[in-house]
Every structure is written in structure tokens, then in C-alpha cells.
Please model this.
Amino acid sequence: LHMRFGRLCNRGINSSDEDDAATTAESPQKRSIVHFDICICCYNDASTDKSLEKLRSLENESARMSTSSETTGDEAFVVTMQTKLLVGTASTCASSRGAGYARNQAAKLRDDCNRNAREVRQVGEECANHFLCILDSDDIMHPTRIAEQACAMLSLDDEQRERTLMGCQFDRIPEDSTQHYTHWANSLSNERLYLEQFRECTLLQPTWFLSRKCFESLGGYLNAPTNNTDETNSQKRTKIIPDTLASDGMESVAADTDVSSKQFYRLFHPSEILDTTISKGTIGEKRKKCAQNNEKSANTLRLAEDTRFFYAHLNAGGRLHLHRTPSPLVSYRHRFGMSQSSSTPRKLLLKLRAKAWEDMVFSGNSVWANGFAIWGAGRDGKDFLKALSQAAVSKVVCFVDVDQNKIERIKWYDNPALGGRRIPILHFSVLAKNVVAVDEVTFGKIDKKQRGEDCFNIAQSKHTLQTEQHNGSKQKSVSKTAIKNRKKESNESFDSEVLHQLPVVVCVAMYRTKGALERNVASIGRVEGKDLWHIM
Model:
């Protein structure tokens, strides 16, 4: 979306638009003009079906459409709008490079089409605004979306506009799909957009609206590497240069480059990097395993382009804003098992969020320098630990949990990767700064059913000493003697003052325990966004 503002008179237009000047040469009256230049940019990333054929047909139809102009009741104000469909495609023999690469190519189609793009963009900040509006091919954009989000962007000052990633509210197709997720994403305040950033992309990519300058300042999306294959041992082997991945930047969005540059932040996990030990001299199972791992790494770089861009934006000091309207502006289609988002591995997303958290919160932050606790000794907490670098892992003081079995029977987390170090599993109450706030120790267990949402509840332990009812969820209550005995049994001494000051990463899903998790987290006296972050 390219918007230009100017003033027309009998001497022409001060924004040097010859066509508009000629249109008004006969009128001596000054009139304000707003010109909307809307390009629908589609890039065919080596599809093998009839997608390109359909796009070309639509492109030909679009080319026959003429520019329309409309004058409001006040003749001093004129709005003109031009629309066109632009289609780009990979070469016939090319292989797919992923959604991020395709979006970068789509974003530069307008400049490729318009040889005078540089002149247009030099009109001046006061009379031209260039925005990118993201839409997935299977979703539906409601008629007023561009107008709504453009007006909301224009209401911001220049500095905020160039740093804002704006989303909008959406509904689902089918209507009853992912109800919990839809309600969560549509109801987040601007504060929660920030505080829950490591749980999920708090603004959905199909609703994104941002300035071209913001997009260019981040270098666009991460470009996945090209698949180069050899036929040795019939193994497809991807050749990736780690330095290239680390900063796969662009001088501008109009240039596709794989040249290494330190200008842009690129989010990728170390596990996605090529094993450079593979060589022609490598034989047998080792070579086969290396080739398989490298191909898998290359494939993951084609995924989660929204997650990588989202954290690059936040890492650069970007703002998040959810534009709220009386009715949704996008219908987001849910196709279980058929969309890229549903097929993106859960562990990959967790690895990327862990890496982003480490880059943006842990590194260079004195609050976390002396160690931290991980809340949740289950699958997600352990996977988060495994995704961290050795430097971050070395600062994990303990796990905390509510599960009596983990605390009193398992007691420790052992992993050979820790180099023989054992991480203790303690009750969350040991972290409480204000002992009065936790006047009794509670145990519980979260039951997770395989399918559906909102099916998480705290189940009563078999060996219940005393049970209290809390808003429909049950927790087991015992004295603090068990925790004191637990400390005596351990081979480590725990300084209570250290535990009371530890920052915490919560790896248990929010909003699933009927408020029990949130009450427990509140009881330890940490501040979200400072010494406490939610990851799940």
C-alpha cells in the first residue's frame, strides 16, 4: 500500500504527479488529494500444481482494470485509488526456499514493476507512506481492513509508525476451531502482547500491517538456503554456510542476497546449523547420519518465518499493537494437519523461543547473571533447558513444581549433557519472597488429555492429607516439614536468601489450570517482564 498526500491547484500538484496535475489543470480551486496505490503481490515459490496458471489468469484480468477516482461531497477533497495484481515466480528448475523467502520476493515486486519507484519514494516523508499488509493465500481479508489499519498507523507519530508491528482481531473458519487460542489472541492488551511474547507470536502474521521502512530495517524475513544436492550414495545433501545463516541480510528488500552481513539480527537455533565435519572422506553410517541431519536442518530454516521475524522486530526495539474494531478484519482459516503452521514441530518453536529469550533477556542482564529457576519439571521445562546454551544451562539453580512425585521421589533431573551435574526439583514455595504469602505447601498434578483444549485441571493426589477446593480445582495441602526434610536429604545446601531472589522462567501453560498456576506464580512475589517470564 503506497499512500501519497498532496494539494492540487491550477498550476499542478506539488507532489510532482503529472497525471494528477493534468486532471486538475482546468480547476483554479485548490484541492487536497489522497492517492492510494495498492499492489497485491503474489510470489510462486516453485509450486508444482496449477497455482501459477491461476495467478497469471488473475493478473491478466487485473491488468484490464483502470484507476478509479472518487470525490467526496466537499469538492476540496479528492481520493483516488489504483489497484493492480503483481505476480512473481521462481525459475522452472528452482526448488522451494520457504515462505520467508517468498514473502521477501513478493515485497519487492512493486519496485521491480515500477522503474520510477525510486523517484516516487523520494517525494518526501510528509506526502508519502508505504505500508505492507500481510495476508495468507487461504485466508479472507474483510473489505475495510486496509482502511482501518492504515488510519490507525497514520494516527501514530513518525517515530512510532516506523517501529510498530500492528495486528488486528480475527475470526476462524470453521467458526468453532481453536476457540481457546482465538479468544486469547483477540483479547490481549498491549501490555500482555509484550509480557507473553515468549509464549507465542502474540500478533498473528496473517493480520500484520507495518511500514516498509520497518520491514527494510529488519532486512525482511530470513531467506532459507537453496537445496544443492549430490548423488553420492543417493543421499540429498544440503550445503549451508553457517556465517551466511547468521546474518542473511539484504541491503534493501529489493535485493535478494545470501551475502554475509552483520547488520541484521537473524533468529535460528544452533541445532539448525550444518555439521561442517561432513566431507568426502566421511564414510559409512557417520556420513549418512550427517547428511540426514543437514537436510533436516535446512528444512527447518524454511519453517517458522513469522516467529523469526517477530523476535527480530522485538530485538530491534519494535512496538506491538493490536488494532481493535467492532468486527474482525481477517478470517483465519484452520486446516488441521494441512497448513505449514500446524506441521511446524513443537520442539522447533520452543527452541526458537528459548534462543530469543536467551538473546533478549538472559544475555547481558545482571538480574539473571547469578542464576535462575525453571518452573515446571515436566516435558516442557526439560525441553526448554535442553534448548539453552551451556552458558545459560550452567545458571539453572533448580526446577520448581507442584507435583509431589517429582519433588519427593524423583528429586533430581539427571542428564549426561549436564556433565554429571544434577539439578534439584523443589516445591515452588521455596522461591516466595514473603513467607507469609505461602502459609501452607500445596501439591497437585496437571492432567493433560490428548485432544481438545480447556481440558487441563489439577487432579487430587492418591495420598491426600488435606484437600481444599479452589474454584473447582483440587490441591493437596501439607505442612512445610516435607520441604525442610527434602532439603536435609539433598547433597546440596540451599541458601534461602538466594532462592528468594532467583528470577524464574515459567514453563507451564497459562490459563489452563482454572487459575491455580496464576495464583501460585503470584505468591512468589516476582515481577513479570523483569525477573519472571512465561515461556509456555
About this structure: The first helix runs from residue 18 to 23. The chain is about 30% helix and 20% strand. The first strand starts at residue 2 and ends at 9.
